[in-house]
Specification:
Shape: globular
Distance between the termini: 55 Å
Strand content: 5-15%
Strand order of the largest sheet: 1-2-4-3
Low-confidence stretches: none
Largest sheet: 4 strands, antiparallel
Order of helices and strands: EEHHEEHHHH
Radius of gyration: 18 Å
Number of helices: 6
């Protein structure tokens, strides 16, 4: 059943993506997606979340990346988006350095950074 306003119940979302509803629940437990909950606590997925799930499915099924790798890649992508926004808003050099340091930490490169500099 489809919910108005481009929101989909878990069964419909799973069918559209070719995934099992239990897979979507697992992705939620891992923090990969955050579906909205109805008053009755039913999960509903937005069009944006479906697009994110398509990306996750592509990374797992076609590129062979495990879920830990997917989590890391999505964190890197979010950090890169923040950096892009900071550069477009005339932020200070310190803001950019902090965000880049965060990116290094996500990648596990913060310990190696001293050796690189």
């Amino acid at each position: 059943m489809r919910v108005t306003g481009d929101f989909y119940f878990i069964s419909t979302a799973a069918r559209l993506l070719g995934l099992h509803p239990q897979t979507l629940r697992k992705y939620e437990r891992l923090g990969l997606v955050r579906p909205t909950r109805t008053v009755g606590s039913m999960r509903v997925y937005s069009a944006d979340e479906l697009q994110r799930l398509r990306l996750i499915k592509h990374l797992v099924d076609e590129l062979g990346i495990n879920l830990a790798g997917v989590q890391r890649l999505l964190s890197v992508a979010e950090s890169a988006r923040r950096i892009r926004r900071l550069t477009g808003r005339g932020r200070t050099r310190g803001d950019l350095v902090r965000e880049i340091d965060h990116l290094f930490a996500i990648l596990g490169l913060d310990e190696l950074e001293g050796d690189i500099r």
